[in-house]
Amino acid sequence: MTNQKPIRLGIMGFGQTGRQLYDLASRSDDFEVVAIADIGKPEILHYLLCSEVKEPERHQLTGNFLVNPRFKARLMAIDKPGEMPWDMFGVDAVVDSTGKYRERSQMEQHLNNGAPRVLLRTVPTDHIDRIVMPGINDNDIAATDRMISAGSGTTTALCLLLHILSQRFEIECASMTSVHSYTSDQALQDYAGSDFRRSRSAAKNIIPNTHEASLWLGHVLPNFEGKVLTSALNVPIHEGCLLDVNLVLKDESVDAEAINNAMRADSPSFPGIVDVVEDPIVSSDVIGNPHSLLFDTKGTIKAGKSIIKTLSWYENLGHAARLLDVVRLYSQLDQKQEAAQ
């Protein structure tokens, strides 16, 4: 985006994803985070940011502003979409990284308060304009899209795997289990929650959980509508996730090495998004990796005549990077339309 003004970005929610968005933006030349909405104390938000990034000295707190060598962002003690005055900051886009405000009506509140476009960090609960995944359906976006989702880290990893392999092999159906690090909405000690299993300690248990990827898969990959079962296991680690996918292939002659070779051949078509690893890695090895899918060739196994088991890795940083990619895609589309007028 040479000679273009930076994209003025607003962030609601300065949890893990919000902090990763901010740090990634501070290292790019095409973003300027102008406002961050979070009810946390500024000094604590700054402290958490510095505890996670590689170069904490780059980030300073000056009054109610987070400052880095490229821009400064105003911290606003607000945690509801309907209360955040985005129009005051002239934002080009807002990323709602709270994970809480997933309803269309809540996204509309961002728009009503001056956000030209709002992007969810997770899947929505009802119909919105579009779910966008770079490398899969980014050519379908429209300038009229206002309420957008970039899926989730797990949903994106699954869609990428299915999209790539389905170009070469006919997949009849599949099942996915995400072996997922514990999340901020889980209790560290046993505590009455939304259901029996999620009321148990995240720090002490492997907790079976549902996963919504199958509900939205058809919006991104229509050919897989109703063909994929998804679930999750939340495990007591802080970061790093494993995608365990079993594929039922129509062609019984396909073996594990054919799957591995397909991923080796096609992953370069998704630079920065998909990669292949040949080493025997574990979850901590993917921390800090910005890819959305890290395919593990050592985890590919054939079972019976037509089932292929695959393993892939990902972590939240990759999803934060894709969120910025989606914002870039729409900014580029807007610029093309302006130039054509």
Provide keyphrases for this structure.
9-stranded mixed beta sheet, Rossmann fold, 7 helices, 7-stranded mixed beta sheet, alpha/beta, Dihydrodipicolinate Reductase, domain 2
Describe what this molecule looks like in 3D:
The chain has 341 residues and is an alpha/beta fold. It has two domains: 166 residues, NAD(P)-binding Rossmann-like Domain (Rossmann fold, 3-Layer(aba) Sandwich); 164 residues, Dihydrodipicolinate Reductase, domain 2, CATH 3.30.360.10. It has seven helices and 16 strands. It has a nine-stranded mixed beta sheet with strand order 3-4-5-2-1-6-7-9-8. Helix 1 packs across helix 7. The longest helix has 25 residues.
Output the CATH homologous superfamily of the largest domain.
Answer: NAD(P)-binding Rossmann-like Domain
- The CATH architecture category of the largest domain equals 3-Layer(aba) Sandwich
In the CATH hierarchy, what is the class of the largest domain? Alpha Beta
Count of domain modules:
2
Widest beta sheet: strand line-up = 3-4-5-2-1-6-7-9-8
Q: Figure out the total of helices.
A: 7
User: How much beta, percentage-wise?
Assistant: 25-35%
Question: What is the string of SSEs from the N terminus onward?
Answer: EHEHEEEEHEEEHEEHEEHEEEH
Radius of gyration: 20 Å
Which whole number gives the mean pLDDT? 95
Binned, the helix content reads: 25-40%
The span between the termini is 19 Å
Structural class: alpha/beta
| Overall geometry | globular
Number of E-type strands: 16
Question: Mind describing the biggest β-sheet?
Answer: 9 strands, mixed
